Amino acid sequence: MRVNDSLQDNDSYFFAELKRLKRIIETLRENPNCIVLLDEILRGTNSDDKQAGTIGLIRQLIDYQAIGVVATHDLAVCQLTDEFPKILSNQCFEVDIKDNALHFDYQLRKGICQNKSAYFLMRQMEILSV
């Protein structure tokens, strides 16, 4: 879902994203045989709002019996599998940090990613000095 700010349409990034999400829900109402792919939705708001909105949207997708993938780094969103274990599944790609470098095997695994690469990369790129 590519979304951008639009001065011409007077839309912020966040509002443009909401319009796209609305279109997805409207499409599912008309044709439930769609696959939904979403990546890190609601980036244009604060963490709590993003979390509540993402969880609400996933619940709505469940109500529509939608099939799809929702990518997130929000660990609280991942906890929805506790409530819907027969419907939702957490999958992840892991990364190993060896010899001061990231190594990916690109194997999809069950569960929530356990590695924390952002801090490592920020130090490696000398954004952080600690």
Report on the architecture of this protein.
The protein is of the alpha+beta class. 39% of the residues lie in helices and 17% in strands. It has a two-stranded parallel ribbon. 7% of the residues are buried. The model has no long low-confidence stretch (mean pLDDT 91).
In short:
Helices cover 39% and strands 17% of the residues. By secondary structure, the protein is of the alpha+beta class.
Contiguous runs where pLDDT drops below 50 for at least 5 residues? none
Shape: globular
Structural class: alpha+beta
The biggest sheet amounts to: 2 strands, parallel
How many domains make up the coordinates? 2
* Main β-sheet, spatial strand arrangement: 1-2
Distance between the termini: 36 Å
Strand percentage: 15-25%
Backbone CA Rg: 17 Å
Tell me the number of strands.
6
